[in-house]
């Protein structure tokens, strides 16, 4: 199984998204999966440490046209620009089985577009503030309740909610 994780780290974003995805990536690798990371080359990115652990990495640009560098971390990224950058990074790569996004700035538009590289899309989330177009959603926090996501997920989306999935 081939899995691509899309997450970022920076002083503003912090490194929590990468840290929790790294835990997931290590577990997937122990199960025999090939895991890669696609991350923006923001100040404080973790691409080097991910590569040092033996994960394949794809560096995305640190900025996109029309992006406000001072925007809040939960503000949406220009998803078309991020998808285009991901497409360039993944050129000549074999398809993935899963893409897992742990990013407050990526919503259902990005998730739908990312299906060109993987038939299944997952999201790691702890806000429940946007619509998702995913096959699997993970929220390992106490805030991860079915009620929080009831109007945000498509029918058939599998959920892993609550601390037992930490």
From TrEMBL:
<dbReference type="GO" id="GO:0016787">
    <property type="term" value="F:hydrolase activity"/>
</dbReference>
<feature type="active site" description="Proton acceptor">
    <location>
        <position position="17"/>
    </location>
</feature>
<protein>
    <submittedName>
        <fullName>UDP-2,4-diacetamido-2,4, 6-trideoxy-beta-L-altropyranose hydrolase</fullName>
    </submittedName>
</protein>
<keyword id="KW-0378">Hydrolase</keyword>
<dbReference type="InterPro" id="IPR020023">
    <property type="entry name" value="PseG"/>
</dbReference>
């Amino acid at each position: 199984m081939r899995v691509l994780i899309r997450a970022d780290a920076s002083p503003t974003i912090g490194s929590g998204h990468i840290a929790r995805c790294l835990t997931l990536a290590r577990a997937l690798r122990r199960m025999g999966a090939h895991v890669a990371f696609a991350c923006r080359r923001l100040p404080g990115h973790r691409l080097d440490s991910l590569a040092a652990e033996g994960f394949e990495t794809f560096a995305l640009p640190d900025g996109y046209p029309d992006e406000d560098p001072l925007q809040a971390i939960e503000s949406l990224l220009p998803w078309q620009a991020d998808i285009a950058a991901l497409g360039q990074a993944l050129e000549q790569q074999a398809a993935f089985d899963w893409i897992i996004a742990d990013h407050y700035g990526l919503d259902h538009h990005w998730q739908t577009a990312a299906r060109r590289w993987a038939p299944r899309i997952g999201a790691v989330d702890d806000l429940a503030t946007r619509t998702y177009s995913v096959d699997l959603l993970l929220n390992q926090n106490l805030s991860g309740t079915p009620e929080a996501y009831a109007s945000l997920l498509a029918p058939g989306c599998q959920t892993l909610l609550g601390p037992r999935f930490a």
